[in-house]
Amino acid sequence: MAASHYKYVIIGGGVAAGYAAREFVRLGVKPGELAIISREEVAPYERPALSKAYLFPHGFARLPGFHVCVGSGGERLLPQWYSENGIELILNTEIVNADLSAKALASSTDRTFSYDILIIATGSTVLRLIDFGVEGANANNIFYLREIDDADKIVEAIHAKKHGKAVIVGGGYIGLELAAALRINDLHVTMVYPEPWCMPRLFTAEIAAFYEGYYANKGIKIIKGTVAVGFDTNDIGDVTAVRLNDGRVLDADIVVVGVGAKPLTTLFKGQVIEEKGGIKTDGYFKTSVPNVYAVGDVATFPLKLYHKLNRVEHVDHARKSAEHAVKAIKASERGQNLGEYDYLPFFYSRAFDLSWQFYGDNDGKTVLFGDDNPSSAKPKFGTYWIKGGKVVGAFLEAGSPEENKAIAKVARLQPPADELELLKKEGLSFASKF
Length: 434
Ligand code: FAD
What we know:
This protein is α/β, with parallel strands linked by helices.
């Protein structure tokens, strides 16, 4: 069978693919020119919903409610939007072979595709305990969360194990959000992680102390400084206990593992230049191979503001990198120039009644301000990171939209801040001055 040919092909049907499709339509794409090939069964959706409202016991989010681009306040792109715009949405189709020199792709179902321009938007996959040789890690009711099927399995288990015991392995944002979601569903929740505090890649010890205290007040038990080394099962293969490195054994009806993710670059190994675990791009998301772009979680791109190459595994970057790549493709077709991507890192999370945002770089000395007492009626606090006498990053819990905008501005402008005591005293009003 002849390969289906498209001018533009996007591999992956996640956040970046959805925002890229919208940008193509904005800038003009003819019917039949663009195809999105996705392993998932559904049109692109806002992935962060899976660990938040998707798991609520009441008023839960379900598709089509959170298809892109609602997460950033845009129009919701339903499956028919793609057909109305002449975009081929090829679902349930995994690309298993990519020959970039021949511009040819093949799927697990033996379909073949060719393209003029390729956008790689394959995102990340979760790290699995089985790959680290953890004993019993393939037991039933041990879950991971990346795609909607995973979330459905967790919802099913929550219903099957009402008031049961859940152990969350991992203290990153997935672990923290899942612990909250399971607690809201009335399970007994224990979190286990090896680090001295949660979210150590972003949180300072002081920030983490607030969230750990808040979680303890909600009845979540946190065990730090040790790891899961094995799982016990019953005679039908369901998990019954988590064994820890320090000898403790935790009863468990459900285990959710959130120990990190890795970018899905395997298809392109040896064909593109990689760096920092991702596909290296320039400031337009062009890879080392002509006419091949990489966006979202897989791209290692120049963070212009900090003069360094980095990967960013967050939704805001997935959206913006996709839009920038499409703008760059369209500009080059018109022989025009586009500015390089100039991204201010932004990450957020929500759990229980909490909601935080972080902008910039979490490097240097820190100053904490505000009310960080986890037992306060309405705690509200933040942190600035100061490097070379300038504020380079800002974090805020419980900020209003205006306040979040203010900390974003500070992180972008990097104003001088020599006196840390003064900065602490001024707190949020420092950011509001700019
Ligand atoms: P993805 O959205 O992961 O999309 C990749 C797509 O490619 C998937 O559809 C996948 O099936 C498909 N694919 C992969 N390989 C192939 C193949 N070979 N053939 C065909 N299709 C393929 N970020 C935040 O900033 N804040 C949050 O609160 C937050 N919450 C999150 C909660 C969860 C549960 C998860 C998993 C992530 C969360 N993130 C959050 C991160 C954010 O969702 C990702 O950074 C973002 O989705 C990356 O977009 P992407 O398009 O690069 O990848």
